[in-house]
Design goal:
Layout: H1 2-18, E1 27-29, H2 40-49, E2 54-56, H3 62-67, E3 74-79, H4 84-89, H5 91-101, E4 110-118, H6 126-145, E5 153-159, E6 163-165, E7 173-174, H7 179-192, E8 196-199, H8 202-208, H9 215-218, E9 226-228, E10 233-235, H10 238-252, E11 261-266, H11 281-296, E12 311-313, H12 392-396
Parallel strand pairs: 1-2, 1-12, 2-3, 3-4, 4-5, 5-8, 8-11, 11-12
Antiparallel strand pairs: 6-7, 9-10
Biased composition (Gly residues): 355-370
Region (Disordered): 350-370
Pfam families: Glyco_hydro_17
């Protein structure tokens, strides 16, 4: 009952707050790494029920973008990792990608950002590292040719592993091996007005050292807090400390407030393997409920209290085909059939739909409800025919000099 009251209160606060211009809307990660997913039309119904109006994909699935036309939801779409070198090497590929994946949907579907790859700078592929910024620049040029740069930002999501340390926040800096790539990338973000995206998971810190990490501190619950002696700032939750660590690193790279920071992924698993401490329905309910209340209140971090933090929750639904430990398949608020993964304190709408028969293909017949989520923390790029990757070669020969968004 206590969990139900916590999350019911969070959602009760969430609905009116989302209407206020001062507070950012709740964001949801939405992907397709499962074989039992409902169609995008069902996802749209659940999204409206939860008053979440920011959606982040790891691809540019035409079925999803078409289903959400006229919905008012703002989409961040993704370019898969495997396409990054090609966009960097061939400017016509970037133009083709825009024509195939953006132009058919705007303005009916609001697309506000494109992420190029996922956590590329913490990978080991030298070609990918060299290609990331050129690919982003090529995509920006392609969007500019279609008069879309005022509407669609180009960015990329980073793991916290780009930092050499994260606590105290004021001591944080980008790793020396990452900095040669990060500095010009920050320059690009500052010049174009695009946000810096970070995937931040306090759960990972708790899982690694449950005896020393205060569970209340990572779950946004009352605790003694920790202080940053250099700044005098006090932190009562780990997520804010992680974001301000990124902020400090950006400042040390001489960009500071010129770049907005958004949390592109955060969440807590409701189940895990035996060695995955803290992965329980109770802790997942506490983390996500308190997180949603924090977002609804429009709070900033201690280092930037006047800047409401935009957060994308990971995730709406459990995905049965994600690789890795059991926790990877249990980050969802809901099961694919629309039933709660744990007591979230709200009644999900009953939706009739079609479940997928393949890897997120959305074909086959069954009943279901809910959103489909993206591949989880540390995962690879989106998979399946909806990524946009397969359309580039065919579209390249059809690109014209005139764009009609």
């Amino acid at each position: 009952m206590a969990l139900r009251l916590v999350l019911a209160a969070a959602f009760a606060v969430l609905a009116p707050a989302l209407a206020a211009a001062s507070a950012p809307a709740l964001g949801i990660n939405y992907g397709q790494v499962a074989d039992n997913l409902p169609p995008p039309q069902a996802a749209a119904v659940l999204l409206r029920a939860l008053n979440a109006s920011k959606v982040k994909l790891y691809d540019a699935d035409s079925r999803v973008l078409t289903a959400f036309a006229g919905s008012g939801a703002d989409f961040t779409v993704g370019v898969p990792d495997r396409l990054v070198p090609r966009l960097a090497a061939d400017p016509s590929a970037a133009s083709a990608w825009v024509h195939a994946n953006i132009l058919p949907h705007v303005p009916a579907t609001s697309i506000t950002a494109v992420t190029v790859g996922n956590e590329v700078l913490t990978g080991t592929d030298a070609t990918m590292l060299r290609s990331l910024l050129p690919a982003m620049e090529a995509l920006h040029v392609a969007l500019a040719a279609c008069n879309l740069t005022s509407r669609v930002a180009v960015t990329t999501a980073h793991s916290l592993a780009v930092l050499s340390s994260s606590f105290p926040p004021s001591s944080a800096a980008f790793r020396h091996d990452v900095l040669p790539y990060m500095s010009p990338l920050l320059g690009f973000l500052a010049k174009t007005g695009a946000p810096f995206l970070v995937n931040a998971y306090p759960y990972f810190a708790y899982k690694a050292d449950p005896d020393r990490v205060d569970l209340s501190y990572v779950l946004f619950e009352p605790n003694a807090g920790v202080s940053d002696a250099a700044t005098g700032l006090r932190y009562d939750n780990m997520l804010h400390a992680q974001v301000d660590a990124v902020r400090a690193a950006i400042c040390k790279a001489n960009y500071g407030k010129a770049v907005e920071i958004r949390v592109s992924e955060t969440g807590w698993p409701s189940q895990g393997d035996e060695d995955e401490a803290g992965a329980t329905p109770e802790n997942a309910a506490r983390y996500n409920g308190n997180l949603m209340r924090l977002v609804a209140e429009g709070k900033g971090t201690p280092a930037a209290p006047g800047e409401p933090l935009q957060v994308y929750v990971f995730a709406l639904f459990n995905e049965d085909q994600k690789p890795g430990p059991a926790s990877e398949r249990h980050y969802g608020l809901f099961q694919p059939d629309g039933t709660p993964a744990y007591d979230v304190g709200v009644k999900a709408p009953t939706i009739s739909g079609r479940k997928g028969s393949g890897s997120g293909s959305g074909n086959g017949t069954s009943g279901g409800a809910g959103l489909v989520v993206a591949q989880g923390p540390g995962g690879a790029d989106g998979v399946g025919p909806g990524t946009g990757y397969y359309t580039v070669s065919a579209a390249a020969s059809k690109v014209t000099a005139i764009c009609t968004p």
